[in-house]
Amino acid sequence: MNLKVPESITFAKTGFCPGCGHGIAIRLIAEVMEEMALTEKLLAVVDVACSSLAIDMWRFDTVMAAHGRPIPTAVGVKHIRPENPVMAYFGDGAAYNIGMAETVHAALRNDNICVFVVNNSVFGMTGGQMAATTLPWQKTVTSPYGKDPKKYGTLDITKVIGQMDIAYLARGELSGAAGIEQSKKMIKKAFEKQLANEGFCLVELLSECPTNLGMAPVDMMKHVHTAMAGYFKPGEFIDKGGSGR
Amino acid sequence: MGSSKAVLDSSRCKGCGYCVEECPKDALFFGKHTSDKGYTTVELNEEACIGCGVCYRVCPDYVFEIVEATE
Question: How far, in whole angstroms, is CA A70 from its chain's centroid?
């Protein structure tokens, strides 16, 4: 068996913190693109937060959008280059807080793009503030006594767009080899559906953020698999198949 | 399995320890080596490695490559 990180990875020494799940997600996307022979064709759109560091990590043609708006930017790119696979790559703070309106309406329109949301349950780049995805009673710098679910709730994207007429909605975890391999299959399926013109595909990737959750990386990895995956159940929630557009 | 081995580029390692935790053969460990950036980096017991690829899959920093053993 030979396993080698794809040529589209630059190995740049980026600012990702030790144990950050972004590095894993980026490798999975690069592997899928290599397997599908799409490395030269992919058009990526990233956010200005942690996901922006991906620009230095991969060799895909990439646009950096305004904060929280990779989705409308990706939709615009797809309109101009319909033959190219297009993805929006960003975090939960941007996708479900800052850019939630764009996320919902792109799903409503069933725009034919792939959306990959790295969910670490906090605002990462700005220092670990409470987000919509912060788990009940999870402590953050802005919820030092824990997030009161009666006051703030916790957003599960599958309950927001889970009834919409979109092509694919799935959630994987970037924890453990099995969970990571499952996430890769979801990423690949999303791209296959975009190429088949099926419509909006969103894959959420539960991710480590040891720095902002104040955990040792290995403890954080276990936290993703137990607490986060316990609340945000991994799986495929919408898998339409065929041309839904 | 058994005919493949992990090869490390420890200069990329940030010492998160995911590979050490996940390795089914306990072939990875933290020794005394420290990178230029100050991270304690992972080391490999080649005798124990079976080349299963788990370390490659869980590593966020692309430290590992799995190659066919030449011998």
Answer: 11
Residues in chain B closer than 8 A to A210 (CB atoms): 16
The candidate with the shortest Cα–Cα distance to A201, out of A168, A172, A170, A171, is A168
Nearest chain A residue to B56, by CA: A3
What predicted TM-score, i.e. pTM, was given to this entire model? 0.96
Give me the DSSP letters along A185-244: HHHHHHHHHHHTT---EEEEEE---HHHHT--HHHHHHHIIIIIHHHS--EEEEE--S--
**pLDDT, tens only, A62-95:** 999 999 999 999 999 999 999 999 999 999 999 9
Nearest residue to A73 (alpha-carbon basis) of A96, A89, A49, A91: A89
Q: Is the pLDDT of residue B14 over 60?
A: yes
Task: Say how far apart CA B34 and CA B28 lie, in whole Å.
Answer: 15
